[in-house]
Amino acid sequence: MSKPLIVITGASSGIGAAAAKLFSPAGHPLLLLARRVEKLEALALPNTLCRRVDVTDRAQLQAALAEAEARFGPADAIVNNAGVMLLGAMAQQDPDEWQRMLDVNVKGLLNGIHAVLAGMAARGRGTIINISSIAGRKTFPNHVAYCGTKFAVHAISENLREEVAGSGVRVITIAPGAVETELLGHTTDEAIKAGYQEWKQQMGGVLAADDVAEAIAYAYGQPQRVCVREIVLAATGQPA
Q1: Can you tell me the distance from the alpha carbon of 231 to that of 131, in angstroms, rounded to the nearest whole number?
Q2: CA 139 → CA 58, 81, 109, 190, distances in Å?
């Protein structure tokens, strides 16, 4: 295969699945990771290894990467897309929901970075693409813990970029506004979910997962000497 391996976490739906469907026809072999492996397999993409992996489990992630690299060669990029959004008012929210977001959105991201970084640095090239959110740049009602995790993604990404710039590895942050994915469905507070849906309608619609995937592909497609450090995108009608 003429194109190198790309790893995508949280690839069973939404942005991850959309990115997979862009990179595969471009000729990239893929390692797709998610807990719902049947949805990965349903994408039916060629030269693709699908594995049931919880990104909070470092050993699972590293084992899947080793298997993919043995088959397809070294990973040239990882899209750290796995994430959960559990909105809630701080005084009422179950602390287990904070922990879940910290585990997936922060620890899972770090596990993805750690799995590929040493190899990329040794080869003198590679791209780490971290999917954050506008909620990693500004705050929103009922987003306290979620914003905390996404502000962490921004900080981790920028600090990492500075750390590895001299090694030829690029670090890119993609920060979408509201996107039509399954993410809101994770929230357990029905009133907050209803309010969020109303907000989306008021702005006249939100981004599609394909819109974000195109931004990912654009940033990755630049020459290796060019690092698009951050892309922030949202529906034109989204005011905040």
Answers
A1: 10
A2: 30, 20, 21, 21
Distances 237 to 14, 15, 120 between C-alpha atoms, Å: 21, 20, 39
**53 token code pair:** 């992996």
146, 196, 218, 220: which one is catalytic? 146
pTM above 0.85, yes or no: yes
Q: What angle do CA 224, 229, 230 make, to 5 degrees?
A: 135
Active site residue 196: no
Amino acid 8 reads I
Per-residue pLDDT of the chain (240 residues; tens, 9 = 90+): 689 999 999 999 999 999 999 999 999 999 999 999 999 999 999 999 999 999 999 999 999 999 999 999 999 999 999 999 999 999 999 999 999 999 999 999 999 999 999 999 999 999 999 999 999 999 999 999 999 999 999 999 999 999 999 999 999 999 999 999 888 888 988 999 899 889 989 999 999 999 999 999 999 999 999 999 999 999 999 998
